[in-house]
Design goal:
- The complex is a heterodimer.
- Chain A is of the alpha/beta class.
- Chain A folds into three domains: 298 residues, FAD/NAD(P)-binding domain; 118 residues, Succinate dehydrogenase/fumarate reductase flavoprotein, catalytic domain (Flavocytochrome C3, Chain A, domain 1, Alpha-Beta Complex), CATH 3.90.700.10; 104 residues, Fumarate reductase/succinate dehydrogenase flavoprotein-like, C-terminal domain (Methane Monooxygenase Hydroxylase, Chain G, domain 1, Up-down Bundle).
- Chain A contains 14 helices and 20 strands.
- Chain A is globular.
- Chain B is α+β, with helices and mostly antiparallel strands.
- Chain B folds into two domains: 98 residues, Roll (Ubiquitin-like (UB roll)), CATH 3.10.20; 131 residues, Fumarate Reductase Iron-sulfur Protein, Chain B, domain 2, CATH 1.10.1060.
- Helices cover 35% and strands 14% of the residues of chain B.
- In chain B, the strands form two sheets. A five-stranded mixed β-sheet of chain B has the order 2-1-5-3-4. A two-stranded antiparallel ribbon of chain B has the order 6-7.
- In chain B, α3 packs parallel to α7, α7 runs antiparallel to α8 and α8 packs across α10.
- The longest helix of chain B is centred in the C-terminal third of the chain and has 17 residues.
- Chain B is elongated and about 65 Å long.
- Chain B starts with 6 loop residues before the first strand and ends with a helix.
- Classes of the chains: A alpha/beta, B alpha+beta.
- Chains A and B meet through α3, α4 and α14 of A and α1 and α3 of B.
Chain lengths: 581, 241
């Protein structure tokens, strides 16, 4: 049974990008029907809500959009699409004002009542506005209140299965979804669709994103033959909690500030090792620390559970308790004493820089399809600055809402490729009626393949092995059925679908990583450790055509600034740090 | 029944409102939350078991359930803290319709949030500067005390008044309303005060403090509701309501 439903604008996802899109679409044209479909509940799934650090914006005296832009480009190792990065930095100013003045967020103030900017690694100015260390909760709670107050149609616990174009493939017609509560398929036609499901590299042994994330958005775009860029760029955070097997706590992030404040990383024999790798020790950048930790772990210098330790108590347990209240409490709930004892940590997959190719108005190559947030690629290049993630989702989500409202007022509903709907329904139904197997074993193997062969440090040999192992896994998944045939709220069916998306996108990560024969930002090749010529930089672009995945090298166009130059007078390349006035 | 030392006896609600408890034996681990127990059962024993979670770290407020009779966030509730003689009973939250097994329909909870006018109404726009506002005024301190709510509905499930009077707006919605009544940037205070002064509003609260006892964020909705009651009283005296 396939239920059909029409709307003007369909938004997939309800993080910062999805909610801002809904709000701006309603504001731009209140006569339009706006529908938000989300895998969980509105505002509760997705990763914007999980933002701890804050929001990068050039709003404080002494800072400038040019400086924010230069930090973003240099941090991204000259790979970002400069038009996207520029749009990000300029619009962030308006977006933070909107969050404060219209949405109702209240970011931390200095004693004089002006906004407080915190220091974040890799930036030349303390520009990260925040709400303590729970910035995402403030942003999403306020935003979801605004969306709930408007006549936005809600399809909660609806999982998107496929983007369905018209029969001639010229434009998008709508989206096939499954109502997870009912277990029924639903086809929603829309004049404009936003892909804002969030990336989330949860196919790695250790990962930070929300558990509902499974790269469905990029997997759907890939199947449609759309170009994905920077797919090798997976950001690892150095300090993920290691709590052992079979606990969802493992992999969750312990904040960056612990290292910034002077925390030590110790090996299994409680020896400090970071100074062996970098003169900045634990305060080196995320990628450097993650690689050092991975190298130690590979040498077998681990704790009993296969990780390393973070130690804070030399700073004074009471001081740690005061400065990192949230982290200390979270660890205590999990049974660990962060302030006084040692906590086991591992590098953990945190953010996905790669995504669907788009322009600075969020348009994709397919008319009717727009993209924002972690599903979009090109803003961050080889590395995302802390604080640019939530800026990215909220800036481009809002833009998408405005642009889609204009498109929807102009365009008509289009008829879908019915044969493709049928094929995609069959694809989602695949595990029903097949002999039941153990998905847990397949999941564990996927986590290991990605961690071992496509992870923090890569080689051609490892990537090749990873691709072969992923292909075996995919074949086995297709032979594996469900033990319970009930379709209603059957999470194991959705685990199966999650695995399929993760394996599919995992292969693209591996192939893009194999294609990039140098080391930039988050991507490190042990067999090609040099960054390569900056002026001749290229980014990878992957797309599937006729069942074959091809990865091309596309030259980076330095449309605003080129390597060696700067938009800041008197600077060259990386901006020099300035103290806020 | 004899049971190995390394297992946990778990009873989990199955079905809708008219469901029943089903028994499972789950391996005990040193680091294990209630959410991990539910996950283990879904992954290894009962593949169609329905429950809801997202962030895993106490930020999204999706995974609240009733654990040994008390509403809790399950992702940050360590088994060692709540198991009684290695036994757990896990049921859906009270006061909300059950969709299936451990998953509730939270729609009414958010509708009440809106009925209490739980949303900011600004006076300025994205084209204006951010307001310069001291962070340590009594009003801001009152907001800070209640603003970290993650809308998990634990307080709503803990509230006996909601159980007796299903129309009651409940602690979370009123707590949010109180933070907004203290926000000097907000333009919606008159209408909001009228909304929370109504039949379903703040006067229903008997200060039983179930919300305070169970809020995983250690917020105090009872105090917020008391603030609203005083504001309503003052407005009534001055003829503004």
């Amino acid at each position: 049974m396939l239920y059909r439903y029409d709307t003007d604008i369909l938004i997939l996802g309800s993080g910062g990008a999805g909610l801002f899109a809904a709000l701006h679409a309603c504001q731009t044209n209140p006569d339009l029907r706006v529908t938000v479909a989300v895998k969980g509940l509105i505002g509760k799934s997705g990763c914007t809500r999980m933002v701890q650090g804050g929001y990068n914006v050039a709003l404080l005296p002494g800072d400038s959009v040019e400086r924010h832009f230069m930090d973003t480009i240099v941090g991204g190792k000259w790979l970002p699409n400069q038009a996207l990065a520029w749009r990000l930095c300029t619009t962030a100013v308006e977006r933070v004002r909107e969050l404060e003045n219209e949405i109702g967020c209240f970011f931390d103030r200095k004693p004089d009542g002006t906004l407080h900017g915190k220091a974040f690694a890799g930036q030349s100015f303390d520009r990260t506005v925040h709400k303590g260390d729970l910035t995402g909760i403030e942003i999403i709670n306020r935003l979801m209140e605004q969306v709930w107050a408007r006549p936005v149609e809600r399809l909660e616990e609806h999982r998107a299965l496929a983007l369905i174009p018209t029969a001639d493939g010229a434009a998008l017609a709508g989206v096939l979804l499954v109502d997870m509560r009912a277990g029924a398929f639903r086809f929603v036609r829309a004049k404009a669709v936003l892909l804002a499901t969030g990336g989330g590299p949860t196919m790695y042994r250790y990962h930070t994103p929300s558990g509902d994330k499974s790269m469905d958005g990029l997997a759907m775009a890939l199947r449609l033959g759309l170009p994905l860029r920077d797919m090798e760029m997976v950001q690892f955070h150095p300090t993920g909690l290691l709590a052992g097997a079979e606990t969802r706590m493992t992999g969750t992030v312990l904040e960056e500030g612990l290292r910034g404040a002077g925390g030590y990383l110790l090996d299994g024999e409680r020896r400090r090792f970071m100074l062996d790798y970098d003169p900045q020790g634990e305060r080196a950048t995320r990628d450097v620390v993650s690689r050092a930790m991975y190298a130690e772990m590979r040498k077998g210098k681990t704790t009993e559970n296969g990780g390393l330790f973070i130690q804070m108590n030399h700073l004074g347990p009471d001081k740690v308790r005061r400065a990192f209240k949230g982290m200390v409490e979270r660890c205590a709930d999990c049974g660990f004493d962060l302030a006084g004892g040692l906590v086991e940590v591992v590098p953990t997959a945190h953010y996905f820089m790669g995504g669907l190719v788009c322009d600075s108005d969020t348009r994709t190559a397919l008319p009717g399809l727009f993209v924002a947030g972690e599903d979009a690629g090109g803003m961050h290049g080889a590395n995302r600055l802390g604080g640019n993630g939530v800026a990215n989702s909220t800036v481009f989500g809002g833009i998408a809402g405005e642009v889609m409202a204009e498109a929807a007022a102009r365009d008509s509903l289009r008829d879908p490729d019915e044969a493709l709907i049928e094929a995609e329904v069959a694809r989602a139904n695949h595990p029903f009626g097949r002999p039941a197997g153990d998905l847990n074993v397949l999941r564990e193997r996927l986590l290991d393949v990605m961690w071992e062969d496509v992870g923090v440090m890569r080689t051609a040999e490892g990537l090749g092995r990873g691709i072969a192992r992923l292909s075996e896994l995919n074949a086995e998944l297709l032979q594996t059925g469900l033990a319970d045939q009930d379709r209603v709220f059957n999470l194991t069916w959705h685990d199966w679908l999650n695995l399929r998306s993760l394996i599919e996108v995992g292969e693209v990560i591996a192939r893009a990583a194999l294609a990039r024969e140098n080391s930039r930002g988050a991507h490190f090749r042990e067999d090609f450790p040099e960054p390569g010529d900056l002026e001749g930089s290229s980014f990878t672009q992957a797309r599937r055509r006729d069942g074959t995945l091809a990865v091309e090298q596309m030259p980076v166009e330095f449309t605003i600034v080129k390597p060696g130059d700067s938009l800041i007078e008197g600077d060259a390349g990386a901006p020099a740090a300035v103290m806020p006035t | 029944m004899n049971r190995a030392d390394d297992t946990l006896a778990v009873e989990i609600w199955k079905g809708g409102t008219d469901g029943r408890l089903a028994a499972f034996e789950v391996p005990l681990r040193a680091n294990q939350t209630v959410l991990d127990v539910v996950t283990w059962v879904q992954r290894h024993r009962d593949p169609a078991l329905a429950y809801r979670f997202a962030c895993r770290v106490g930020m999204c407020g999706s995974c609240a359930m009733t654990v040994n009779g008390k509403p809790r966030w399950t992702c940050r509730t360590h088994v060692a803290k709540v198991a009684v003689e290695r036994h757990l009973t896990i049921e859906p939250l009270r006061n909300l319709p059950v969709i299936k097994d451990l998953a509730c329909d939270m729609t009414v909870f958010f509708e009440k949030w809106q009925a209490a006018r739980g949303r900011f109404e600004g006076r300025t726009t994205r084209h204006d500067e951010v307001v310069q506002l001291a962070p340590d005024t009594p009003a801001r301190v009152a907001i800070d005390a209640g603003i970290e709510c993650i809308n998990c509905a634990v307080c709503y499930a803990a509230c006996d008044v909601v159980a007796w009077k299903p129309d009651y707006l409940g602690p979370a919605a009123l707590n949010r309303a109180w933070t907004l009544q203290n926000d000097t940037r907000d333009a919606g205070q008159e209408a909001r005060l009228a909304a929370v002064a109504g039949d379903a509003g703040c006067h229903n609260c008997h200060s039983l403090q179930g919300c305070v006892a169970h809020c995983p964020k250690a917020l105090n909705p009872t105090a917020a509701i008391a603030g609203l009651k005083r504001a309503v009283f003052r407005a009534a005296l001055s003829g503004d309501l």
